[in-house]
Structures are given as structure tokens and as C-alpha cells.
Specification:
The chain is mostly beta strands. The protein has a domain of 103 residues: Immunoglobulins (Immunoglobulin-like). It has 1 helix and 7 strands, in the order αβββββββ. A 4-stranded antiparallel beta sheet has the order 4-3-6-7, with no helix packed on it. A 3-stranded antiparallel beta sheet has the order 1-2-5, with no helix packed on it. The N and C termini lie far apart (144 Å). The relative contact order is 0.15. The mean pLDDT is 77.
Length: 189
């Protein structure tokens, strides 16, 4: 029985020792948080296509030894949505935003990693996918103006008193003498 207990104790010590060794000497990789994403901020036309510019907020890395951020941008360029790698941008480790352009209607996949001073990339990369839709309202420049263009005189009514003339045939209008009949009740005998 003592032999079994000794074997279990040796095995437990070996497991704990291996775990401590792994924690001390394991490869340390930098980490990065999620994207902060801002909507399209502008648009322009190029070769008959609307090109939208998006301002992408980049996450901070809590690791102090990050030397650069690397953003890979994949855009769909055809109707079947096939993604082609378009560009990889190396950014300053303190970069907070980057402008990304995309043709209206294209799908855009962003992948961000940070690299530390030993050349270790963060894993997994932070991903963001969006559809480049035109949400930028058209601009109005200048101000609205008003100026007098002409003047016209509105003719007075028939009586010249500025009051509206009642339509013909409406009966008693309460206006004595206006229609030739008296509105007063007949005098009694």
C-alpha cells in the first residue's frame, strides 16, 4: 500500500512541476482587444464607382512590448464576393484609427494583429467584417436666400369694404337691405 501512495505522490509532484515549468517558460504572445468601428465618414467617385472611406478605431494592446500593429484588408472585387487580399498596413503601436477605403457594395474583411519586440504576433487576430454601403447623406453647401421678385395688387371686392361678398341665392343673410328684403319681423296690429 505504501508503494501505491508513493507512486501517486511522485506523479502528483511531477504534474505540478510540469505545470509550473510550463507557466514560467511558455511562449508569451501579445494580446489585443476588439475593434472600435466608426461609420463611413466620406465618399468620392472614382471611375464611375462610389468609393467610401471608413474610419476604423483600433484597439489598444495591454502588452507593453508591442512594436507595431499590422492591419490586413481584404475586399470583394466581383459579384461572387470572392475576397482578394488588397493590402497590409503596418501601423504605429499607439495608432488609434486608420482610414480604409472600399467600393460601394463590396464586402470588407479586416484582420489586426500586434507584434512584440521579439517578433511574436498576437493570436488570434482581431477580425471585423462589414458591407460597404452608402450611408453618407449628400451635402448641401451655401445658404438659402430670399429676394423680392415682383409685386401685384389684389383687386378689392365689389363693395370696396374689404368684406367677402356672399354667394347669390343663400336666402336671409342677416344684413338688412342687402338683398332688398327686410330681416326685421313684421310689425304687429
Amino acid at each position: 500500500m505504501e508503494t501505491i501512495i508513493t507512486v501517486i505522490l511522485i506523479f502528483a509532484i511531477a504534474v505540478v512541476g510540469a505545470w509550473i515549468t510550463y507557466r514560467i517558460f511558455r511562449e508569451k504572445r501579445p494580446t489585443v482587444g476588439p475593434f472600435r468601428f466608426v461609420i463611413a465618414v466620406s465618399e468620392r467617385k472614382e471611375n464611375g464607382m462610389d468609393i467610401l472611406t471608413y474610419k476604423v478605431g483600433l484597439p489598444e494592446s495591454p502588452s507593453g512590448d508591442v512594436v507595431k500593429k499590422v492591419l490586413t484588408i481584404n475586399r470583394s472585387t466581383d459579384a461572387d464576393g470572392k475576397l482578394e487580399m488588397v493590402e497590409t498596413i503596418e501601423l504605429d503601436p499607439k495608432a488609434e484609427t486608420v482610414d480604409v477605403e472600399a467600393a460601394e457594395g463590396s464586402q470588407v474583411d479586416l484582420s489586426l494583429i500586434v507584434i512584440d519586440n521579439a517578433g511574436n504576433p498576437s493570436t488570434p487576430p482581431v477580425l471585423k467584417t462589414f458591407q460597404a454601403n452608402d450611408t453618407v447623406p449628400p451635402e448641401l453647401t451655401g445658404e438659402m436666400t430670399v429676394e423680392a421678385a415682383s409685386e401685384r395688387t389684389v383687386p378689392d371686392d365689389d363693395e370696396g369694404d374689404g368684406e367677402e361678398t356672399p354667394p347669390a341665392g343663400d336666402g336671409d343673410d342677416g344684413d338688412d337691405g342687402d338683398d332688398g328684403e327686410s330681416d326685421d319681423p313684421p310689425a304687429g296690429d
